[in-house]
Amino acid sequence: MSTILVTGGAGFIGANFILLARKLQWANIVNLDKLTYASNLENLAELKGDKNYRFVQGDISNLELVNYLLQEYQPNAIINFAAESHVDRSIFSPQDFMQTNVAGTCQLLAASRFYWQKLPLEQQKQFRFLQISTDEVYGSLQLEEPAFTEDNPYAPNSPYAASKAAADHFVRAYHHTYGLPTLTTNCSNNYGPLQFPEKLIPLIILNALAGKSLPIYGDGQNIRDWLYVIDHCAAIYLILQQGKIGETYNIGGLNEQTNLSVVEKICYMLDELVPQLNFSYSALITFVPDRPGHDRRYAIDCSKIMTELGWKPQESFDSGLRKTVEWYLHNPLWVSQVHSEAYQKWLKQNYENRGIV
Ligand code: NAD
Ligand code: TYD
Protein backbone atom coordinates (compact mmCIF):
# COMPACT_ATOMS: atom_id res chain seq x y z
CA MET A 1 0.00 0.00 0.00
CA SER A 2 1.18 3.52 -0.71
CA THR A 3 2.04 6.11 1.94
CA ILE A 4 0.72 9.65 2.05
CA LEU A 5 2.20 12.49 4.10
CA VAL A 6 -0.86 14.47 5.19
CA THR A 7 -0.22 17.91 6.70
CA GLY A 8 -2.82 19.53 8.96
CA GLY A 9 -4.48 16.18 9.53
CA ALA A 10 -5.64 17.00 13.05
CA GLY A 11 -7.98 19.70 11.72
CA PHE A 12 -11.46 19.39 10.25
CA ILE A 13 -11.00 18.24 6.65
CA GLY A 14 -7.61 16.55 7.17
CA ALA A 15 -8.95 14.38 10.01
CA ASN A 16 -12.01 13.38 7.99
CA PHE A 17 -9.68 12.49 5.11
CA ILE A 18 -7.36 10.40 7.30
CA LEU A 19 -10.23 8.51 8.94
CA LEU A 20 -11.65 7.67 5.52
CA ALA A 21 -8.25 6.78 4.08
CA ARG A 22 -7.56 4.31 6.89
CA LYS A 23 -11.10 2.89 6.89
CA LEU A 24 -11.07 2.28 3.13
CA GLN A 25 -7.38 1.26 3.13
CA TRP A 26 -6.47 3.96 0.61
CA ALA A 27 -2.98 4.37 2.03
CA ASN A 28 -0.72 4.37 5.07
CA ILE A 29 -0.78 7.83 6.59
CA VAL A 30 1.83 10.04 8.24
CA ASN A 31 0.12 13.09 9.75
CA LEU A 32 2.25 16.20 10.35
CA ASP A 33 0.33 18.80 12.35
CA LYS A 34 1.48 21.75 14.44
CA LEU A 35 -1.55 21.34 16.74
CA THR A 36 -2.83 24.90 16.61
CA TYR A 37 -6.08 25.94 18.32
CA ALA A 38 -8.06 24.48 15.39
CA SER A 39 -6.67 20.97 15.79
CA ASN A 40 -7.85 18.16 17.98
CA LEU A 41 -6.11 14.81 18.34
CA GLU A 42 -9.38 13.39 19.68
CA ASN A 43 -10.56 13.60 16.06
CA LEU A 44 -8.22 10.69 15.35
CA ALA A 45 -8.62 8.74 18.60
CA GLU A 46 -10.08 5.71 16.82
CA LEU A 47 -6.74 5.21 15.02
CA LYS A 48 -4.95 4.39 18.27
CA GLY A 49 -3.17 1.11 17.66
CA ASP A 50 -3.33 1.42 13.86
CA LYS A 51 0.21 0.44 12.77
CA ASN A 52 -0.25 2.17 9.44
CA TYR A 53 -0.96 5.57 10.92
CA ARG A 54 1.68 7.85 12.46
CA PHE A 55 1.20 11.24 14.07
CA VAL A 56 4.05 13.75 14.23
CA GLN A 57 3.67 17.12 15.92
CA GLY A 58 5.47 19.79 13.93
CA ASP A 59 5.33 22.75 11.59
CA ILE A 60 5.31 22.50 7.80
CA SER A 61 7.79 25.41 7.88
CA ASN A 62 10.35 23.22 9.65
CA LEU A 63 12.47 22.14 6.67
CA GLU A 64 14.69 19.86 8.70
CA LEU A 65 11.73 17.97 10.15
CA VAL A 66 9.95 17.66 6.80
CA ASN A 67 13.18 16.44 5.15
CA TYR A 68 13.53 13.83 7.87
CA LEU A 69 9.92 12.65 7.52
CA LEU A 70 10.24 12.32 3.75
CA GLN A 71 13.41 10.23 4.09
CA GLU A 72 12.01 8.13 6.91
CA TYR A 73 8.57 7.34 5.46
CA GLN A 74 9.21 7.67 1.69
CA PRO A 75 5.69 8.83 0.85
CA ASN A 76 4.23 8.52 -2.64
CA ALA A 77 2.25 11.71 -2.13
CA ILE A 78 1.94 14.80 0.04
CA ILE A 79 -1.45 16.36 0.66
CA ASN A 80 -1.14 19.85 2.12
CA PHE A 81 -4.19 20.62 4.28
CA ALA A 82 -2.18 22.58 6.87
CA ALA A 83 -3.34 26.17 7.08
CA GLU A 84 -4.74 28.97 9.13
CA SER A 85 -8.27 28.69 7.80
CA HIS A 86 -10.63 31.24 9.35
CA VAL A 87 -11.36 34.47 7.44
CA ASP A 88 -12.37 36.41 10.58
CA ARG A 89 -9.09 35.57 12.30
CA SER A 90 -7.19 36.62 9.17
CA ILE A 91 -8.76 40.06 9.54
CA PHE A 92 -7.29 40.34 13.07
CA SER A 93 -3.86 38.82 12.36
CA PRO A 94 -2.95 38.49 8.68
CA GLN A 95 0.72 37.75 9.49
CA ASP A 96 -0.13 34.32 10.91
CA PHE A 97 -1.72 33.48 7.57
CA MET A 98 1.32 34.67 5.66
CA GLN A 99 3.53 32.53 7.90
CA THR A 100 1.81 29.16 7.58
CA ASN A 101 -0.17 29.41 4.36
CA VAL A 102 2.51 31.08 2.23
CA ALA A 103 5.93 30.57 3.87
CA GLY A 104 4.99 27.14 5.23
CA THR A 105 3.76 25.93 1.84
CA CYS A 106 6.98 27.24 0.24
CA GLN A 107 9.07 25.25 2.71
CA LEU A 108 7.01 22.13 2.07
CA LEU A 109 7.43 22.60 -1.68
CA ALA A 110 11.20 23.00 -1.30
CA ALA A 111 11.50 19.79 0.73
CA SER A 112 9.18 17.95 -1.70
CA ARG A 113 11.25 19.01 -4.67
CA PHE A 114 14.55 17.75 -3.26
CA TYR A 115 12.94 14.50 -2.13
CA TRP A 116 11.18 13.94 -5.46
CA GLN A 117 14.28 14.72 -7.55
CA LYS A 118 16.25 12.00 -5.77
CA LEU A 119 13.59 9.29 -6.08
CA PRO A 120 14.19 6.35 -8.45
CA LEU A 121 12.49 7.00 -11.84
CA GLU A 122 9.46 4.74 -11.24
CA GLN A 123 8.69 6.37 -7.87
CA GLN A 124 9.33 9.81 -9.33
CA LYS A 125 6.62 9.17 -11.92
CA GLN A 126 4.13 8.18 -9.23
CA PHE A 127 4.82 11.01 -6.79
CA ARG A 128 2.22 13.79 -6.36
CA PHE A 129 2.06 17.03 -4.35
CA LEU A 130 -1.58 17.93 -3.79
CA GLN A 131 -2.38 21.45 -2.58
CA ILE A 132 -5.75 21.85 -0.87
CA SER A 133 -7.01 25.30 -1.76
CA THR A 134 -10.25 27.21 -1.72
CA ASP A 135 -12.77 28.89 -4.01
CA GLU A 136 -12.11 32.12 -2.07
CA VAL A 137 -9.01 32.79 -4.22
CA TYR A 138 -11.35 33.72 -7.10
CA GLY A 139 -12.90 36.63 -5.21
CA SER A 140 -16.58 37.51 -5.08
CA LEU A 141 -19.40 37.00 -7.61
CA GLN A 142 -22.43 39.15 -8.37
CA LEU A 143 -25.76 37.29 -8.26
CA GLU A 144 -26.09 37.06 -12.03
CA GLU A 145 -22.48 36.00 -12.75
CA PRO A 146 -21.64 32.41 -13.74
CA ALA A 147 -19.96 30.15 -11.16
CA PHE A 148 -16.15 30.04 -10.89
CA THR A 149 -14.38 27.78 -13.37
CA GLU A 150 -10.71 26.78 -13.18
CA ASP A 151 -10.00 29.58 -15.69
CA ASN A 152 -11.25 32.41 -13.49
CA PRO A 153 -8.50 34.89 -12.67
CA TYR A 154 -7.46 34.99 -9.02
CA ALA A 155 -8.88 38.02 -7.15
CA PRO A 156 -8.59 37.27 -3.42
CA ASN A 157 -10.23 39.77 -1.07
CA SER A 158 -9.51 38.63 2.51
CA PRO A 159 -6.05 38.11 4.00
CA TYR A 160 -6.95 34.39 4.23
CA ALA A 161 -7.84 34.22 0.53
CA ALA A 162 -4.72 36.23 -0.39
CA SER A 163 -2.49 33.81 1.51
CA LYS A 164 -4.09 30.77 -0.13
CA ALA A 165 -3.79 32.43 -3.55
CA ALA A 166 -0.10 33.14 -2.98
CA ALA A 167 0.48 29.53 -1.97
CA ASP A 168 -1.34 28.28 -5.09
CA HIS A 169 0.91 30.44 -7.24
CA PHE A 170 3.99 28.89 -5.63
CA VAL A 171 2.61 25.42 -6.30
CA ARG A 172 2.03 26.37 -9.92
CA ALA A 173 5.55 27.83 -10.17
CA TYR A 174 7.11 24.66 -8.73
CA HIS A 175 5.42 22.64 -11.44
CA HIS A 176 6.37 24.97 -14.27
CA THR A 177 9.91 25.68 -13.10
CA TYR A 178 11.05 22.36 -11.64
CA GLY A 179 8.49 19.92 -13.06
CA LEU A 180 7.27 18.94 -9.57
CA PRO A 181 4.14 16.80 -10.19
CA THR A 182 1.57 19.02 -8.50
CA LEU A 183 -2.22 19.06 -8.33
CA THR A 184 -4.35 21.83 -6.85
CA THR A 185 -7.96 21.65 -5.69
CA ASN A 186 -10.13 24.72 -5.15
CA CYS A 187 -13.06 23.72 -3.01
CA SER A 188 -16.14 25.53 -1.74
CA ASN A 189 -17.25 25.77 1.93
CA ASN A 190 -17.17 22.41 3.72
CA TYR A 191 -19.41 21.31 6.56
CA GLY A 192 -19.74 18.10 8.56
CA PRO A 193 -18.47 16.36 11.71
CA LEU A 194 -15.29 17.57 13.47
CA GLN A 195 -15.44 21.19 12.29
CA PHE A 196 -14.07 23.68 14.84
CA PRO A 197 -17.05 25.73 16.09
CA GLU A 198 -15.73 29.13 14.99
CA LYS A 199 -17.16 28.43 11.50
CA LEU A 200 -20.77 29.27 10.62
CA ILE A 201 -22.55 25.90 10.75
CA PRO A 202 -21.15 24.47 14.01
CA LEU A 203 -21.26 27.94 15.62
CA ILE A 204 -24.97 28.20 14.91
CA ILE A 205 -25.72 24.63 16.08
CA LEU A 206 -23.86 25.08 19.36
CA ASN A 207 -25.10 28.62 20.06
CA ALA A 208 -28.67 27.49 19.46
CA LEU A 209 -28.32 24.53 21.84
CA ALA A 210 -26.87 26.90 24.47
CA GLY A 211 -29.76 29.35 23.98
CA LYS A 212 -27.35 32.04 22.72
CA SER A 213 -27.86 34.54 19.88
CA LEU A 214 -27.24 33.29 16.34
CA PRO A 215 -25.07 36.00 14.74
CA ILE A 216 -25.68 36.68 11.05
CA TYR A 217 -23.30 39.15 9.45
CA GLY A 218 -24.86 41.99 7.44
CA ASP A 219 -28.17 41.19 5.76
CA GLY A 220 -27.64 37.41 5.68
CA GLN A 221 -27.89 37.36 1.88
CA ASN A 222 -24.23 36.40 1.27
CA ILE A 223 -24.12 33.14 -0.63
CA ARG A 224 -21.83 30.14 -0.15
CA ASP A 225 -21.76 26.79 -2.00
CA TRP A 226 -21.81 24.14 0.73
CA LEU A 227 -20.18 20.71 0.31
CA TYR A 228 -20.34 17.82 2.77
CA VAL A 229 -16.78 17.09 3.95
CA ILE A 230 -16.85 13.39 3.00
CA ASP A 231 -17.73 14.32 -0.59
CA HIS A 232 -14.70 16.62 -0.56
CA CYS A 233 -12.45 13.81 0.74
CA ALA A 234 -13.66 11.44 -2.00
CA ALA A 235 -12.87 14.10 -4.60
CA ILE A 236 -9.37 14.61 -3.20
CA TYR A 237 -8.58 10.90 -3.38
CA LEU A 238 -9.92 10.64 -6.93
CA ILE A 239 -7.82 13.61 -8.05
CA LEU A 240 -4.76 12.11 -6.39
CA GLN A 241 -5.33 8.90 -8.35
CA GLN A 242 -6.47 10.27 -11.69
CA GLY A 243 -5.90 14.03 -11.84
CA LYS A 244 -3.70 15.41 -14.62
CA ILE A 245 -0.35 16.61 -13.33
CA GLY A 246 -0.03 20.39 -13.10
CA GLU A 247 -3.79 20.98 -13.28
CA THR A 248 -6.28 22.49 -10.90
CA TYR A 249 -9.73 21.10 -10.11
CA ASN A 250 -12.70 23.00 -8.71
CA ILE A 251 -14.79 21.03 -6.20
CA GLY A 252 -18.24 22.27 -5.22
CA GLY A 253 -21.50 21.13 -3.71
CA LEU A 254 -23.89 22.35 -6.47
CA ASN A 255 -25.58 23.86 -3.46
CA GLU A 256 -25.73 27.65 -3.23
CA GLN A 257 -27.43 28.95 -0.10
CA THR A 258 -27.76 32.33 1.54
CA ASN A 259 -26.39 32.40 5.09
CA LEU A 260 -29.87 33.22 6.40
CA SER A 261 -31.31 30.16 4.70
CA VAL A 262 -28.53 27.92 6.17
CA VAL A 263 -29.20 29.25 9.67
CA GLU A 264 -32.97 28.84 9.32
CA LYS A 265 -32.54 25.24 8.15
CA ILE A 266 -30.41 24.46 11.21
CA CYS A 267 -33.07 26.03 13.46
CA TYR A 268 -35.90 23.99 11.92
CA MET A 269 -33.84 20.80 12.26
CA LEU A 270 -33.18 21.55 15.93
CA ASP A 271 -36.88 22.37 16.46
CA GLU A 272 -37.55 18.79 15.33
CA LEU A 273 -34.63 17.04 17.07
CA VAL A 274 -34.48 19.01 20.34
CA PRO A 275 -37.91 20.68 20.59
CA GLN A 276 -38.50 23.46 23.11
CA LEU A 277 -41.98 24.31 24.36
CA ASN A 278 -43.55 27.28 22.52
CA PHE A 279 -40.19 28.35 21.10
CA SER A 280 -38.36 28.06 17.79
CA TYR A 281 -34.58 28.36 17.73
CA SER A 282 -35.05 30.83 14.86
CA ALA A 283 -36.11 33.38 17.51
CA LEU A 284 -32.39 33.55 18.42
CA ILE A 285 -31.35 34.84 14.98
CA THR A 286 -29.60 38.21 15.36
CA PHE A 287 -28.31 40.37 12.53
CA VAL A 288 -24.94 41.83 13.52
CA PRO A 289 -22.41 44.26 11.91
CA ASP A 290 -20.90 42.80 8.76
CA ARG A 291 -17.45 41.28 8.29
CA PRO A 292 -15.12 43.87 6.66
CA GLY A 293 -14.67 43.09 2.97
CA HIS A 294 -17.27 40.29 3.17
CA ASP A 295 -17.43 38.47 -0.18
CA ARG A 296 -21.00 38.46 -1.45
CA ARG A 297 -21.19 35.19 -3.32
CA TYR A 298 -19.09 32.10 -4.04
CA ALA A 299 -20.26 29.50 -6.53
CA ILE A 300 -18.25 26.67 -8.02
CA ASP A 301 -18.57 25.24 -11.51
CA CYS A 302 -17.29 21.70 -10.93
CA SER A 303 -18.06 20.33 -14.39
CA LYS A 304 -14.34 19.55 -14.97
CA ILE A 305 -14.06 17.00 -12.16
CA MET A 306 -17.55 15.68 -12.94
CA THR A 307 -16.95 15.07 -16.64
CA GLU A 308 -13.24 14.19 -16.60
CA LEU A 309 -13.11 12.10 -13.41
CA GLY A 310 -16.74 11.07 -12.88
CA TRP A 311 -17.10 12.63 -9.40
CA LYS A 312 -20.25 14.16 -8.04
CA PRO A 313 -21.42 15.03 -4.52
CA GLN A 314 -23.34 12.16 -2.95
CA GLU A 315 -24.88 14.04 -0.04
CA SER A 316 -27.81 16.46 -0.41
CA PHE A 317 -27.72 19.56 1.80
CA ASP A 318 -30.68 18.23 3.83
CA SER A 319 -29.09 14.82 4.47
CA GLY A 320 -25.60 16.25 5.09
CA LEU A 321 -26.88 18.93 7.43
CA ARG A 322 -28.95 16.40 9.39
CA LYS A 323 -25.85 14.16 9.81
CA THR A 324 -23.88 17.20 10.95
CA VAL A 325 -26.46 18.43 13.46
CA GLU A 326 -26.83 14.89 14.84
CA TRP A 327 -23.05 14.53 15.14
CA TYR A 328 -22.79 17.68 17.29
CA LEU A 329 -25.76 16.51 19.38
CA HIS A 330 -24.17 13.10 19.99
CA ASN A 331 -20.68 14.38 20.83
CA PRO A 332 -21.00 16.65 23.88
CA LEU A 333 -17.58 15.61 25.19
CA TRP A 334 -15.84 16.73 21.98
CA VAL A 335 -17.80 19.98 22.13
CA SER A 336 -16.87 20.68 25.76
CA GLN A 337 -13.19 19.98 25.02
CA VAL A 338 -12.98 22.53 22.18
CA HIS A 339 -14.61 25.23 24.30
CA SER A 340 -11.27 26.24 25.81
CA GLU A 341 -10.35 29.52 27.46
CA ALA A 342 -8.57 30.57 24.28
CA TYR A 343 -11.72 29.92 22.28
CA GLN A 344 -13.81 32.01 24.70
CA LYS A 345 -11.27 34.80 24.20
CA TRP A 346 -11.71 34.54 20.45
CA LEU A 347 -15.51 34.69 20.73
CA LYS A 348 -15.16 37.84 22.83
CA GLN A 349 -12.75 39.39 20.33
CA ASN A 350 -14.98 38.70 17.32
CA TYR A 351 -18.48 39.14 18.73
CA GLU A 352 -18.34 41.58 21.65
CA ASN A 353 -18.17 44.60 19.31
CA ARG A 354 -21.10 43.12 17.45
CA GLY A 355 -23.21 43.23 20.57
CA ILE A 356 -23.03 39.51 21.26
CA VAL A 357 -21.12 38.06 24.18
P1 NAD B 1 -8.66 23.64 10.13
O1 NAD B 1 -8.36 25.02 10.57
O2 NAD B 1 -9.78 22.89 10.75
O3 NAD B 1 -7.35 22.72 10.31
C1 NAD B 1 -6.07 23.16 9.93
C2 NAD B 1 -5.05 22.22 10.55
O4 NAD B 1 -3.75 22.64 10.12
C3 NAD B 1 -5.04 22.22 12.08
O5 NAD B 1 -5.02 20.90 12.58
C4 NAD B 1 -3.74 22.96 12.44
O6 NAD B 1 -3.16 22.54 13.66
C5 NAD B 1 -2.87 22.60 11.25
N1 NAD B 1 -1.80 23.59 11.04
C6 NAD B 1 -1.91 24.95 11.04
N2 NAD B 1 -0.70 25.51 10.83
C7 NAD B 1 0.18 24.50 10.67
C8 NAD B 1 1.57 24.43 10.41
N3 NAD B 1 2.29 25.55 10.26
N4 NAD B 1 2.15 23.22 10.29
C9 NAD B 1 1.44 22.08 10.45
N5 NAD B 1 0.12 22.08 10.72
C10 NAD B 1 -0.51 23.27 10.81
O7 NAD B 1 -8.84 23.75 8.55
P2 NAD B 1 -9.79 22.90 7.57
O8 NAD B 1 -11.12 23.53 7.54
O9 NAD B 1 -9.65 21.46 7.88
O10 NAD B 1 -9.09 23.22 6.18
C11 NAD B 1 -8.05 22.39 5.68
C12 NAD B 1 -7.57 22.96 4.35
O11 NAD B 1 -8.65 23.05 3.45
C13 NAD B 1 -7.00 24.37 4.49
O12 NAD B 1 -5.87 24.46 3.66
C14 NAD B 1 -8.12 25.27 3.96
O13 NAD B 1 -7.60 26.44 3.39
C15 NAD B 1 -8.76 24.36 2.92
N6 NAD B 1 -10.19 24.59 2.67
C16 NAD B 1 -11.07 24.62 3.70
C17 NAD B 1 -12.43 24.78 3.44
C18 NAD B 1 -13.44 24.79 4.55
O14 NAD B 1 -14.63 25.09 4.31
N7 NAD B 1 -13.09 24.45 5.78
C19 NAD B 1 -12.89 24.92 2.12
C20 NAD B 1 -11.94 24.88 1.08
C21 NAD B 1 -10.59 24.70 1.36
P1 TYD C 1 -17.35 30.87 7.56
O1 TYD C 1 -17.91 29.59 8.11
O2 TYD C 1 -16.48 31.69 8.43
O3 TYD C 1 -16.65 30.52 6.20
P2 TYD C 1 -16.07 31.52 5.03
O4 TYD C 1 -15.93 32.87 5.58
O5 TYD C 1 -14.76 30.88 4.72
O6 TYD C 1 -17.05 31.43 3.89
O7 TYD C 1 -18.57 31.79 7.13
C1 TYD C 1 -19.56 31.35 6.20
C2 TYD C 1 -20.48 32.51 5.93
O8 TYD C 1 -21.19 32.81 7.14
C3 TYD C 1 -19.75 33.78 5.54
O9 TYD C 1 -20.53 34.47 4.56
C4 TYD C 1 -19.71 34.59 6.82
C5 TYD C 1 -20.98 34.16 7.53
N1 TYD C 1 -20.93 34.18 9.01
C6 TYD C 1 -21.94 34.82 9.74
O10 TYD C 1 -22.88 35.39 9.16
N2 TYD C 1 -21.86 34.80 11.10
C7 TYD C 1 -20.83 34.22 11.76
O11 TYD C 1 -20.81 34.28 13.03
C8 TYD C 1 -19.82 33.54 11.02
C9 TYD C 1 -18.67 32.86 11.70
C10 TYD C 1 -19.91 33.55 9.63
Walk me through the structure.
The protein is of the alpha/beta class and 357 residues long. It has a domain of 245 residues: 3-Layer(aba) Sandwich (Rossmann fold), CATH 3.40.50.720. It is built from 13 helices and 13 strands. Strands 3-2-1-4-5-6-11 form a 7-stranded parallel beta sheet, sandwiched between helices. α1 links the parallel β1 and β2. α1 packs across α8, α4 packs parallel to α6 and α9 crosses α11. Bound molecules: nicotinamide-adenine-dinucleotide (NAD) and thymidine-5'-diphosphate. The site of nicotinamide-adenine-dinucleotide has 30 residues, from α1, β2, α4 and β5.
Estimate the strand proportion: 15-25%
CATH homologous superfamily (4th level) name of the domain at 3-195 and 226-255 and 296-317: NAD(P)-binding Rossmann-like Domain
**What sequence of helices (H) and strands (E) makes up the elements?**
EHEEHEHHHEHEEHEEEHEEHEHHHH
How big is the Rg?
A: 20 Å
Mind telling me the CATH class of the domain at 3-195 and 226-255 and 296-317? Alpha Beta
